[in-house]
Amino acid sequence: MARKTQSLQLVQDATMERIAVSAVSKVGVLVPPWAVLGLEAAGGAVSHAMWGAAPAVTWAAAGCTLGSTLLTALTWLATHRRRMLGRVHSTVTAGAATSWFTVATITGVTADTTAGALFFGGATLALSWNIRTVIRGQGDGESSEDALGSLFDRAKEQAGLKGARVRATEVTDHKVKGQMQLPAGEKTAEDAIKATDRIESGMRLPPGSVIVARDDDRADRAHVTVSDPRAIRRPIAWPGPSRPGGSVDEPLRIGIYQDGDEVEYRFVGHHLQIMGMTGSGKSIGGAWNIVAEIITRVDAAVFSIDVSKDDQTMGPLNAGLHRFETGKAGAVDLIRAMHAAIPERTKWLAAHGYQAWEPGCGLTYWYLHIEEVPKLFNELAGEDEERLAEILKEIRSAGGSVILSLQRADYTQIPTLIRSQMAKMCFGLSDPDDVKYGVSARQRKAGVEPHEWEDHYPGMAYLDGKSVRSTHYAMPLRTFSWGTGSAEANAAMASHAARFPAAAKDVDHFTAALSRLRTPTPVQAPAVAPPTASPALRAREDDVVQDEEREAFAADFAELLGDAAELVIAVQHASPQMLQRKLRVGREDSLRLLEALERKGVVGPAGDDGEGRPVLMNAADGAEAAARLRDSGDPVAAALRTDDPDPAVTAGAGDRVQEPTDAEAESLVTEDDDREPMTPAAARGLVYDWLRHRQESRRPSFTASDSELTAVRNRSGNGRAWIYKVLKDLTARGVLRADKSGSSTTFTIADLSPLDRDDLGHAA
């Protein structure tokens, strides 16, 4: 209760000091009217004794009458800002008191009529003031209105808000809310917001006590809330789930605002960015409280990724999560699976008559939570980063939201396109320059200062999202604390998650397919030192490096060639300039691509201008031709990529042509088109089995030109470009780790668990 009464006491104490109406007890505030009544009687007796006899009484009566009239009129004018009851009551009291004083001066206090008027009339007025005092003290709001208005009146000129008025609209034990009326045409709510610190200074309140927010209905009005900022600088214990068994469409209770109101955050239909410096509480305060509420709702599922801190942050919540990935392989698999499932969910909703997700629609609402998201972006390949961006753009329509947590949301850490779509929750920061990345536009206008907290008050934050009220987006809040230490907090969270396990929920088939309630721990391959090369192997080292360079180029060129074929067939136009612009390649590479496309029969020879080429395939054949080129590549281009071994050796027109060596002749031979390659699934299965064999034999590292892998490729009936494509995909998924040393790339097995899921998918 002490915490709740601090804010109201803050206003009351400051007011009493300046308007001198405080009393030491409840009885004390009833004394002033009776004291005035006694002074009135004494003054009347003195006045009658001095001027009650002729001829002075005539002039005394005239003077008292004139004074009575003036004082009554002045009281009416001076109370124009009061409500009508207060204005009339004050004016009647002033008129009655001055009139009785006039009569007492003439007749004396002891005259029957005069004494009776003092006893009955004076006592009635004194009691009426006592009644108003008691009622105000019981919370009718008028006393607080006087307090808030009086405080503001003494501060407004120094704050640059001359002509503005404040009237209290709500009084509770821990806050005073009011409405500010600004001079129409002279000031706006934005002026009042910018002057908040000066208002606090003039009112002699602690910094952060006054929160000013716009009134969305009137530009010349603003909402004012006065509360005690010190009330949330101490940890607030978690009170338990707010709506267990309810829908996630109902608000989540994740903390307490500075004014004592609960943070009721309806987190559906938008994404949330949680930002804060190390130690500010963004993970334990933000992610924990939000996810802890979500897992108690029957129609929601949480999928979490943390490739930075493993189980340290979200581990205690594991029982309540439908999937938790701590390695790159699992994270990529989750992103790809979710990306593929979103169109199916939107089709399902449309087929059942829904424009968007609704409670009771039949689909489980998805939350994708990514802790320390910059680390994940650094791990993802370009295609998977694009998939994640598409998830953010599309998942809301399919019934889902994304939660991203990071320390600094600038363009070096997260794409600006993603940041622009997020609601904002900002914890303490160390640098004022970081504020613009962590708060919303209207929070910046309100002058919020999370950098003032740094890591001194873990759990304090600002929140602005779709459901946040206009009076609270710039108000500090404190998320709940789960314990006094890490061990106590982890135990409390683990116990909570166990009460609401993900395995106990009834979910739709999309969620069931995506869920993995028991995440296997990735097996890291032991480090194996490469064997020392023999003299014979060292002699061939340069040849091997050149072969790997050529094969790597052939694989990359095959991918690019497929993209070029798909592009020119789709637009039915082929020119170097178009390929340079669309594929972002250089002039030399664009010419090489067109030559390869001509050899493959996709385009014809260059025209008279030497640039444009006719496209020889229909748009309907584009996808098939592109896929074929990605698999087969162009051996001629790969051979031409080999560097000239000796630029000093030249030949003239009449020189004898030297026969190629066996290695040179082999490099110019194209893949055998007569071979019948395996199905893609079967071919990949051979590679997967070989990788498992390498892992079991404790030989996790290899190169693309490994003799065993070459034998596997030959058995599958695919070319070198195909194996590079497979290795590149497995690296992007986190199955392999690629380490490039000079021009040679060594692949190391990192996590084979995604291969097991591929096998299950093919078997199904």
Q: What's the SSE blueprint?
A:
Blueprint (H helix, E strand, L loop, with lengths): L1 H18 L11 H21 L4 H23 L5 H24 L4 H26 L4 H14 L9 E7 L4 E6 L7 H6 L1 H8 L6 E5 L6 E6 L9 E2 L14 E6 L4 E4 L5 E5 L6 H13 L5 E6 L17 E3 L2 H24 L13 E6 L2 H7 L2 H17 L1 E7 L9 H4 L2 E5 L8 H4 L2 H5 L14 E5 L12 E5 L4 H14 L9 H6 L20 H5 L1 H31 L4 H8 L3 H13 L22 H11 L2 H7 L20 H6 L12 H17 L4 E2 L4 H10 L3 H13 L3 E6 L2 E6 L3 H11 L1
Parallel strand pairs: 5-15, 8-12, 8-13, 9-10, 9-11, 11-12
Antiparallel strand pairs: 1-2, 2-4, 3-4, 6-7, 6-15, 13-14, 14-15, 16-18, 17-18
Short description:
This protein has 28 helices and 18 strands. By secondary structure, the chain is α/β, with parallel strands linked by helices.
Give your account of this protein's structure:
By secondary structure, the protein is an alpha/beta fold. It is 48% helix and 12% strand. The protein contains 28 helices and 18 strands. Strands 5, 6, 7, 8, 9, 10, 11, 12, 13, 14 and 15 form an eleven-stranded mixed beta sheet that branches. Strands 1-2-4-3 form a four-stranded antiparallel beta sheet. A three-stranded antiparallel beta sheet has the order 16-18-17. β1 (165-171) and β2 (176-181) form a beta hairpin. α2 (31-51) runs antiparallel to α5, α19 packs antiparallel against α22 and α19 packs across α27.
